[in-house]
Amino acid sequence: MSLLIKKAVQERELICRDGLSLERVQHGDLTIEISRGCYRPEQTEYVAGIYYGHKDYHFETSYSEVLEQMLEEDRILAPVTTIYSLVDDRNTCVGSIRTIMKLTDCELPLEREFGIQLSPWTHRHQPIDRIYEIARFAVTVNTTKGIMMLFRELFKDALINDFAVASLDSRVLRGLRKMGFHWFDLQEPKYYLGSLTCPVALKAGEHIGGIFADIVKDMHIKNTLSRKAE
């Protein structure tokens, strides 16, 4: 399946729609749209609907309360957020994921929700280029293919020494580890946004393998070229 995806991938094109600058990558009948530094409430609504409607997720508050909380958080974090959305040939969203960059004065949702101090972990994994959280992950079409496409585009933007954290549903985490993401645990899991959620992390150049190993090779090339340019 990964070979089929790689053959269908085109270069990113830049378009403007509804006042947004979007990068688009065609994958057969599906397209990845990438937006940077934008507040996109429709993406939050898509993810909230998937979470709240999942048969195995359980919430103690109403959908409107969950959505309001997510919208407010995403509005605040929009300037440091990159959204990768997967759309079908009818321009309907069928998948979404995002990164939230950690700045000096920016507390990531994972840090706040789980009470985790990242500094001891990042100290162990020096050198580190950037720290960010991978969040708001949901897919509703051809799950394996959709997951591969979203993560592949996300990590195409990664640097080899990037340190990524995430709060992942325990079942999703098992699937990603089978695909070649060697997430390591930061803390014991707890119930968050409807399911048993695991706070995890990885370093891009060290903990990605399997069907995504070619991306790491590209990271090494980018890293070498960057050093030569300095």
Secondary structure: elements and pairs:
Blueprint: H1 2-8, E1 13-17, E2 20-27, E3 30-36, H2 41-53, H3 63-77, E4 81-87, E5 93-101, H4 109-114, H5 119-124, E6 131-139, H6 143-156, E7 163-169, H7 170-179, E8 184-185, E9 190-192, E10 195-203, H8 213-229
Parallel strand pairs: 6-7
Antiparallel strand pairs: 1-2, 2-3, 3-4, 4-5, 5-6, 7-10, 8-10, 9-10
Helix pairs in contact: 2-3
Task: Explain this structure.
- The chain is α+β, with helices and mostly antiparallel strands and 230 residues long.
- The chain has a single domain, classed as Gcn5-related N-acetyltransferase (GNAT) (Aminopeptidase), CATH 3.40.630.
- The protein contains 8 helices and 10 strands.
- Strands 1, 2, 3, 4, 5, 6, 7, 8, 9 and 10 form a 10-stranded mixed β-sheet that branches.
- Strand 2 and strand 3 form a beta hairpin.
- Helix 2 packs antiparallel against helix 3.
- The N terminus is likely disordered.
List keywords for this structure.
alpha+beta; single chain; 10-stranded mixed β-sheet; globular; Aminopeptidase
Could you write a compact summary of the structure shown?
With 230 residues, the protein is of the alpha+beta class. It has helices spanning 2-8, 41-53, 63-77, 109-114, 119-124, 143-156, 170-179, 213-229; strands spanning 13-17, 20-27, 30-36, 81-87, 93-101, 131-139, 163-169, 184-185, 190-192, 195-203.
Estimate the mean pLDDT confidence. Answer: 84
**Can you name the CATH architecture?**
3-Layer(aba) Sandwich
Range of strand content: 25-35%
Text of the CATH class: Alpha Beta
What class do helices, strands and sheet pairing give? alpha+beta
Distance between the termini: 38 Å
At the fourth level of CATH, the homologous superfamily is: Gcn5-related N-acetyltransferase (GNAT)
- Report the major sheet: 10 strands, mixed
Output the radius of gyration.
17 Å
